[in-house]
């Protein structure tokens, strides 16, 4: 490779890094976080994660089963479940955007999302 190739490669890497860091900082600071509860692929509840929702238990009942979610010190975890294997209880705690907890037998998915991604807009249509 010639000297110009190294310069172009370095510029591409710097541009990519600056775009990534800008979008990541915007995502974490300008948007509000929500706890989103999905059952069987449909959003059944949504809670804004703020100071008012510090310590709370949420009971999620559906025809597939029952789960108890706990919000404690800005962390969310599944405390109890009616599923047989109890894997969802062992998943641990989540607190950051994009993290999720899943209980497959009860068809439950709990995730932390940003308000701008919760709107019902079409991003892409594939044919």
TrEMBL record:
<keyword id="KW-0472">Membrane</keyword>
<keyword id="KW-0812">Transmembrane</keyword>
<dbReference type="InterPro" id="IPR038690">
    <property type="entry name" value="NusG_2_sf"/>
</dbReference>
<protein>
    <submittedName>
        <fullName>NusG domain II-containing protein</fullName>
    </submittedName>
</protein>
<keyword id="KW-1133">Transmembrane helix</keyword>
<feature type="transmembrane region" description="Helical">
    <location>
        <begin position="6"/>
        <end position="24"/>
    </location>
</feature>
<dbReference type="Pfam" id="PF07009">
    <property type="entry name" value="NusG_II"/>
</dbReference>
